[in-house]
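Subject: Large ribosomal subunit protein bL31B

B.,
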Amino acid sequence: MKPGIHPPYGPVVFRDRAAGFAFLTRSTATSDKTVEWEDGRTYPVIDVEISSASHPFYTGTARVLDTAGRVERFERRYGSRGGSRDDHGSRR
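Prediction pasted inline below.
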């Protein structure tokens, strides 16, 4: 790496306040706020709105959309276009 052009890279705590979850990692992000970590040392802390502890995909609370029902509703409303199709969606 070329010296003098990169920001400092050091330990930072990212904290998801909604889930009460925090993790220590290394980053170029900085903050004026600090927090005392489990090892007794003080690190800069960055509060985030969402993390793997609160994101619906990772927590298993994601909603499953009914895409088949939406397609059928669209076809009822606007009809199928482009001529007739066989059972596999191919044109005859």
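The two ends are 61 Å apart (CA to CA).

T.
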